[in-house]
Amino acid sequence: SEPHIQRAQDLERRIRVYEQMEESHDWPGALNAVDYTAMTLMTLVLVIGFYVWGY
Amino acid sequence: MANHEPVNHALEAERGDTPLLPSERMWGFWEFTYANSALAIATWAFLIGGATALFVGPKEGIAAIVIGNILGVLLATFSTCVPCGKYGTEQFTFLRSMFGGNGSRLVYVLAVVFLTMGWLAVLGLMFGRSIDGLTGLLSEHKTDPNGWIVLASGFFAILLTGIVVAKGPTSIKVFNTIVAPALIVIMGVMLYMILSKHSFAELMALPALDAPFDDKRVNFMIAVEVNMAAGFSWWPYIGNLARLSKNQRTAFWPNIIGIFAAASLGEVVGLLAASALGDSDPTVWMTHIGGLTFGVIALGFVAFANVTSMINILYTSIVGLRQLAGRKLREMSWELLVVLFCITPMAIVLFAPGIYDGFFIFLVWTSALNSALAGIGIADYFFLRRQRLNLRHLYASEGVSPFRFWKGFNPIALVALVAGFAIYVVVFNPQTLANTTFFTFATASLPSCLLAGLIHYGLTRALARQLGWGAYPKRDDSKTEALGLNAKGYSNE
């Protein structure tokens, strides 16, 4: 029950959760190709659109 | 020995450096959007809009605000929110994977401590000028931008900030819930007042207030660069907010609504008001925009909102400093740390108040650093590690972690950082505004970001594996090992 041992055990537990997600490729809400395409298109439209309109 | 209080691990993870589990994260899409927007809609938006008005008229200014902010925010959030949103790690703990333990401390001092001290001085002086403007509105007092009222009030604002932060975070939340909605109302009223006096076409035809060059293209690109610096200036803070979001998607998209769109809206209001009223200083144009009553309310509120922003950034910076620093700093009392942190901004207010009028110079200097940091982060996380981070290495004690690099520093990342910073200053000197032809096509932040990323990638591929640094996956590895790690022993044991 010593705090530093509790913390080490807690950190181990947290790392294992992420290792299991990594192994099973189970990442709910992860960014995917649709997100990256959307943000690229959005940026291009904003940059080119406002450049043409404003300058 | 068995009578210790049980440790609340979820709370410790939230306030400490261990990875937050998805089930513990408190912010969904709209909660993070609100927090993000509340951070963005602060008085600095008026300052940045006013600075933009110096270089270009409103039409070009709106374009510069949108272009600069979207590019800066996108690159800053790619390198921070995406990894911190995936693994729930504290931002500067995550940076151990590319800079080493001591390297991430060095980056913290450069990017957070210096930036916070500069902003405390600028916002303190803005508070001082608001009080000076209020005094001018309510009495026969003639305002003086660097007079004793401004300096004394600025000093008082930093002192008040220090006192509130020394008392702890409970009062901070109350201020935050009031300020952002009220600032939106004030912005709406300002926009209405400006548009009721000028048609949109008239506004768009107004000239720049003080264009430094004859070449319109150079002035436009400086305006873009100032706004890109504003976008990049979120780099030191935004990762630690993103880790509180439920997943990676929730950690990324609210930034587009908050620190891009909401901040841009505030800057556009500042730009239009500065252009229409002929002064880039918000504390000056607020006294002219809507008569005595509105001037008093707006200036009084801006003074209050400044102190709230100052409290936020000072509190966040000191919490981070305590987590990252060695034992000596951790054992130092909270109050003493606050006092030490406030000395430099107080000295700037008293002896170098010119930082306020040239605040965009300070902002652009920070971008020389932040753009290179973003480039290194993107190269390391996306291209070298292919979005997979070994948490066991990240939290292993520094003696055995592959992220020890060389004495806790990654020389490759530091060389890339210096190169990115240097190319920025060569392409565009923030102090003198001297620039190359290349700057008028590419800005300075983008080459800095790209060069730092390329150097970090190239040198890591060439040297890191031979030197045993960083546990980078092989170029043709399709799978980064997640388990089977030799490094044991934890940094918080």
From TrEMBL, chain B:
Family note: Belongs to the purine-cytosine permease (2.A.39) family.
Primary residence: membrane
Keywords: Membrane, Transmembrane, Transmembrane helix
Gene3D superfamilies: Hydantoin permease (1.10.4160.10)
Compartments (UniProt record): Membrane
UniProt-recorded name of the protein: Cytosine permease
Keyword Transmembrane included in the entry's annotation: yes
Keyword Transmembrane: yes
Bilayer-spanning residue ranges: 34-56, 62-85, 106-127, 147-166, 178-200, 220-239, 251-277, 289-315, 336-356, 362-384, 405-426, 438-459
InterPro entries xref list: CodB, Pur-cyt_permease
Pfam families noted in UniProt: Transp_cyt_pur
Topological type in the membrane: Multi-pass membrane protein
